[in-house]
């Protein structure tokens, strides 16, 4: 399971509106690469793909995750950092054994 914080849900809905996407959600995934071995990926999708897990959050925000990525993301809380210097989505991932300084990659 992946949880979506209130702040992340608000940002997802705001960004979807800017993209002109009324229905759909944020695709979150994991791929090989980055300074710690694995990198987080994001994309906007109008609907989930076959086999995706769909996680609902506050304000109707949705996250789509493929099964392979879910192995690395299960138990994660997706948040959004509103700090002026480091704005962006933040993964509070209990499966990450190590992370890089930028927060966009991790080792499992």
Outline of the structure:
The chain has two helices and nine strands; from the N terminus they run E-H-E-E-E-E-H-E-E-E-E. It is α+β, with helices and mostly antiparallel strands and 108 residues long. It has one domain (3-102): HesB-like domain (Hypothetical Protein Aq_1857, Chain: A, Sandwich), CATH 2.60.300.
Helices, strands, pairings?
Layout: E1 3-4, H1 6-19, E2 25-32, E3 38-45, E4 53-56, E5 62-65, H2 67-73, E6 77-81, E7 88-92, E8 98-99, E9 105-107
Parallel strand pairs: 1-6, 2-5
Antiparallel strand pairs: 2-3, 3-9, 4-5, 6-7, 8-9
Please describe what this structure looks like:
- This protein has two helices and nine strands, in the order βαββββαββββ.
- Helix content is 19%, strand content 38%.
- It has one domain: HesB-like domain (Hypothetical Protein Aq_1857, Chain: A, Sandwich), CATH 2.60.300.
- The model has no long low-confidence stretch (mean pLDDT 86).
How many strand units?
A: 9
Instruction: Return the structural class.
Output: alpha+beta
Straight-line N-to-C gap: 17 Å
* Name of the CATH architecture: Sandwich
CATH class: Mainly Beta
Compressed to H and E, one letter per element, the order equals EHEEEEHEEEE
Write down the Rg: 13 Å
Outline the biggest β-sheet: 6 strands, mixed
**Total tally of structural domains:** 1
| Shape label | globular
The portion of residues forming beta strands comes to 35-45%
- Name of the CATH homologous superfamily: HesB-like domain
Strand order of the largest sheet: 4-5-2-3-9-8
